[in-house]
Amino acid sequence: MIASLEADDSEWAAKELATLRTKSPQTCKVALRQLHDSLECADFAANMVMEYRIASRVLTRPDFAEGVRAVIVDKDNAPQWDPATPEGVSDALIDSIFAPLPADEEWKPL
Description:
By secondary structure, this protein is mostly helical. It is built from 6 helices and no strands. The protein has one domain. The longest helix has 15 residues.
Protein backbone atom coordinates (compact mmCIF):
# COMPACT_ATOMS: atom_id res chain seq x y z
CA MET A 1 0.00 0.00 0.00
CA ILE A 2 2.81 2.40 0.90
CA ALA A 3 4.69 1.57 -2.30
CA SER A 4 1.54 2.25 -4.32
CA LEU A 5 1.07 5.63 -2.65
CA GLU A 6 4.75 6.48 -3.20
CA ALA A 7 4.38 5.65 -6.90
CA ASP A 8 1.33 7.91 -7.23
CA ASP A 9 2.25 11.58 -7.73
CA SER A 10 -1.22 12.90 -6.94
CA GLU A 11 -1.92 15.32 -4.12
CA TRP A 12 -4.31 12.79 -2.59
CA ALA A 13 -1.63 10.06 -2.48
CA ALA A 14 0.89 12.43 -0.91
CA LYS A 15 -1.64 13.40 1.76
CA GLU A 16 -2.55 9.80 2.56
CA LEU A 17 1.10 8.74 2.65
CA ALA A 18 1.94 11.57 5.04
CA THR A 19 -0.94 10.51 7.30
CA LEU A 20 0.07 6.84 7.25
CA ARG A 21 3.63 7.75 8.20
CA THR A 22 2.38 9.29 11.46
CA LYS A 23 0.62 6.08 12.52
CA SER A 24 2.00 3.09 14.39
CA PRO A 25 3.36 0.63 11.81
CA GLN A 26 2.27 -2.22 14.08
CA THR A 27 -1.28 -0.87 14.30
CA CYS A 28 -1.46 -0.39 10.53
CA LYS A 29 -0.42 -3.99 9.94
CA VAL A 30 -2.85 -5.25 12.58
CA ALA A 31 -5.69 -3.29 10.95
CA LEU A 32 -4.92 -4.68 7.49
CA ARG A 33 -4.76 -8.23 8.80
CA GLN A 34 -7.95 -7.70 10.78
CA LEU A 35 -9.81 -6.55 7.67
CA HIS A 36 -8.54 -9.57 5.77
CA ASP A 37 -9.25 -12.12 8.51
CA SER A 38 -12.70 -10.73 9.28
CA LEU A 39 -13.86 -12.06 5.92
CA GLU A 40 -13.21 -15.57 7.24
CA CYS A 41 -15.21 -15.09 10.46
CA ALA A 42 -18.31 -17.27 10.39
CA ASP A 43 -20.38 -14.90 12.52
CA PHE A 44 -20.33 -11.96 14.90
CA ALA A 45 -19.10 -14.12 17.81
CA ALA A 46 -16.08 -15.28 15.80
CA ASN A 47 -15.29 -11.67 14.96
CA MET A 48 -15.53 -10.72 18.63
CA VAL A 49 -13.11 -13.53 19.56
CA MET A 50 -10.61 -12.02 17.11
CA GLU A 51 -11.23 -8.47 18.41
CA TYR A 52 -10.70 -9.56 22.00
CA ARG A 53 -7.44 -11.35 21.16
CA ILE A 54 -6.14 -8.26 19.39
CA ALA A 55 -7.16 -5.85 22.14
CA SER A 56 -5.79 -8.00 24.94
CA ARG A 57 -2.39 -8.10 23.27
CA VAL A 58 -2.11 -4.65 21.70
CA LEU A 59 -2.82 -2.96 25.02
CA THR A 60 0.33 -4.57 26.45
CA ARG A 61 2.61 -3.62 23.54
CA PRO A 62 4.78 -0.46 23.69
CA ASP A 63 2.93 1.43 20.94
CA PHE A 64 -0.29 1.74 22.92
CA ALA A 65 1.41 3.49 25.85
CA GLU A 66 3.53 5.56 23.45
CA GLY A 67 0.47 6.75 21.56
CA VAL A 68 -1.23 7.75 24.82
CA ARG A 69 1.93 9.55 25.93
CA ALA A 70 2.33 11.44 22.66
CA VAL A 71 -1.30 12.50 22.26
CA ILE A 72 -2.77 12.73 25.77
CA VAL A 73 0.01 13.04 28.34
CA ASP A 74 2.82 15.09 26.78
CA LYS A 75 0.73 16.31 23.83
CA ASP A 76 3.86 16.53 21.68
CA ASN A 77 2.26 14.43 18.91
CA ALA A 78 5.67 12.87 18.30
CA PRO A 79 5.34 9.19 19.10
CA GLN A 80 8.39 6.96 18.84
CA TRP A 81 6.90 3.73 17.52
CA ASP A 82 8.49 0.36 18.28
CA PRO A 83 9.08 -1.03 15.71
CA ALA A 84 9.50 2.28 13.90
CA THR A 85 8.88 1.07 10.33
CA PRO A 86 6.49 -1.33 8.62
CA GLU A 87 9.49 -3.44 7.63
CA GLY A 88 10.38 -3.77 11.31
CA VAL A 89 7.00 -5.29 12.18
CA SER A 90 7.56 -9.00 11.71
CA ASP A 91 4.96 -11.50 10.57
CA ALA A 92 5.70 -13.38 13.80
CA LEU A 93 4.70 -10.34 15.86
CA ILE A 94 1.44 -9.94 13.96
CA ASP A 95 0.75 -13.68 14.22
CA SER A 96 1.30 -13.50 17.99
CA ILE A 97 -1.28 -10.70 18.29
CA PHE A 98 -3.88 -12.82 16.46
CA ALA A 99 -3.00 -16.14 18.11
CA PRO A 100 -5.58 -17.91 20.26
CA LEU A 101 -5.57 -17.08 23.95
CA PRO A 102 -5.55 -19.81 26.57
CA ALA A 103 -9.00 -21.44 26.63
CA ASP A 104 -9.97 -19.86 29.94
CA GLU A 105 -9.09 -16.37 28.64
CA GLU A 106 -10.87 -16.42 25.25
CA TRP A 107 -13.93 -14.23 24.76
CA LYS A 108 -17.17 -16.17 24.94
CA PRO A 109 -20.67 -14.92 24.29
CA LEU A 110 -23.02 -15.15 27.27
